[in-house]
Write a structure and sequence with these properties.
heterodimer; A: 134 residues; alpha+beta; five-stranded mixed beta sheet; 2 helices; 5 strands; rod-shaped; B: 120 residues; 3 helices
């Protein structure tokens, strides 16, 4: 049979050991919380950049660089001459992107690259419009 | 005894938390639903601009399927027109429909609704 003093000692010793998993759980919770916040922030940033590129591609395909006949514009029928450096730079600044590449020639090194289907030239040859940026 | 219980609780907690984290990891993909709809609209618009819906009928099946195959080769996508069953999708491969559009075109001189789907 334990004396009261020995019992109190055992209880404290056991509580001391129990603290270790409790501390580990707290540490795990805090680091998990920090990780989730960081991930959510990164995911949102990536989504914003992607949405900007989608908007830029859609604007280019529907109005920005399409074949025009007076006031009439032909969506998805691209006039490659309109996609010059000034056009790209203007869109890059308006969108607040660090890099932007718009071309029917191919992709560029960037965080995101997406393509749209179009036709080019008088013979309306199928082509891909690449919009890359980040 | 309490230490063992705490350890077991901790292991249980870690297992549950890891499971939840793994599920969150799987939901990290970017939402590209608008982009996919735009891509499907593009494919339809390209076919239209190239005159594939002019005098549209079953007689144009070969020409349209050839166009769909050319676009499919460029994009890695497969296209399917419900109703007339024009497609470049190979039957032998399983395809997940990414997006479907409802379109109206003159078929055999009469306006008809078709579901135009793209898949991978």
């Amino acid at each position: 049979m334990m004396t009261p003093s020995r019992y109190r000692g055992f209880a404290s010793f056991d509580a001391l050991f129990s603290l270790v998993p409790v501390m580990l759980m707290l540490f795990f919770l805090l680091s998990t919380g920090a990780y989730l916040v960081e991930e959510a922030s990164e995911r949102m940033e990536r989504q914003v950049v992607f949405d900007k590129l989608v908007s830029i591609a859609d604007y280019t395909m529907k109005s920005g660089a399409v074949v025009r006949n007076g006031t009439v514009r032909y969506p998805n029928w691209l006039d490659e001459k309109l996609m010059d450096a000034d056009y790209v730079e203007d869109l890059r600044q308006r969108a607040g992107l660090e890099r932007l590449h718009i071309s029917t020639g191919g992709t560029a090194e960037a965080a995101f690259c997406l393509y749209r289907l179009a036709v080019v030239g008088d013979d309306r040859k199928p082509a891909k419009l690449f919009v890359c940026g980040g | 005894m309490q230490s063992i219980e705490a350890m077991v609780s901790f292991l249980f907690f870690v297992t549950i938390a890891s499971g939840i984290l793994l599920q969150l990891e799987n939901q990290r993909d970017i939402d590209d639903s608008v982009y996919r709809v735009q891509l499907a609209e593009d494919a339809w618009r390209v076919l239209y601009l190239r005159g594939d819906f002019r005098d549209f009928s079953d007689a144009k099946r070969a020409a349209l399927e050839q166009e769909l195959a050319a676009i499919g080769d460029e994009t890695g996508l497969c296209f399917f027109m419900d109703g007339v069953r024009f497609t470049n999708c190979r039957d032998s491969e399983p395809h997940a429909t990414a997006v479907s559009l409802r379109k109206t075109v003159f078929y055999d001189g009469k306006p008809q609704n078709f579901t135009f789907s793209i898949g991978r």
